[in-house]
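call fold(seq) -> tokens
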Amino acid sequence: MNLEGYISVQLRWDGQRIASVKVTPRHLLPASALFRGKSAIQTAHQTPMLYSLCAKAQTVAALSALEAALGIRVNSATLKWRELLVLGESLMEALCRFMLHLPALIGEARKPENLILLRKEFTKLLAPVLKDQAWKTPAACLAEPDVKAWQTFSTMLISAISTDILGLSSGEWFELVNSGKSAHWLKHADTATARFLLKLWPLKSTGTPLNLMPAATFYAAPDELHTAMLVDPDFSSYPHWQGSVMETGALARMQHHPVVATLLAQDCAPMLVRVIARLLELVEAATALSHDTLSANISSSMPFQGAGLSCLQTLRGLLLHCAEVDANSMITDYHIVAPTEWNFHPEGSMQGLSGMTVGSATEASQVAEWMIQSLDPCVSYKIEVIHA
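ret:
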């Protein structure tokens, strides 16, 4: 049993442009149906079995929500390990996107050698924690992580990013993009990422409003988002922030970065800016890991007695878990809101394709593929083009 499903995207093409976009979200099996009547330990242990991607982030979110509901505090080493698990998983999944998926989108051969080596090293780093079930148990007490080992890993990460994605050192790349020379980098870098972005560079925004989740959402979530979950039975499938559909993820988090803000102001296609935002975030996260300067990306609270809400920033965006327990610490209600539900809302960012000029149904399907990949769903999808 899983919660994953698939997303359906239907385009109506009138022979000159994409006239309309219809997004049908994946069908969700309510988390409450899976976890109600189970213990906190059972819930935490079963959570990673439901997801093929972001399983560690989902587990950390579950643990944080359950501990908040139970009034449990964990030690600083455990919190540090959880941050590393989430960040490490996000970094590896981002690398997979840039090193495997993007080359495939433009018909280039994949070069997985460095990614394979990094995955082996990542597995070694996690071995002290993942060797048993203790880390997936509420109130776990983990030992301090080996900071030097993680810094060594970050050096390998930065080297792979520089060689396989940027085509130059991260320092040189930052200097170019921060000085407004992104186009120069794209034209001269010999990497699949640069060549993919070069294909997107001429595209312009269709003028569809881009509703990016404000950073304040992460901190205001314990109040407003929990209230929305309680009053709106469809919130897990069709989430919203103060009544508005929002995009979450790298573009939302990096919207005020000078490079991202400039590209948006120039009406560049959001799919282009989205990938560049993810690349900026990838390089900055790898650098932060090397200096042991991780920023907190996990928040939890107790909205009322017996309830716990966790908010976690993953690679794809804001992840929410809400748990309610009874006096015997058994689950009475449970909600999960994944980033995919934010980003593939029927009225969300995919509507940015509406009005785009395309010369054929094949081209319409291609730009839809690029848009979907830029939003990076955690589930499979299908695209259908109908000649209107």
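The longest helix spans residues 76-105.
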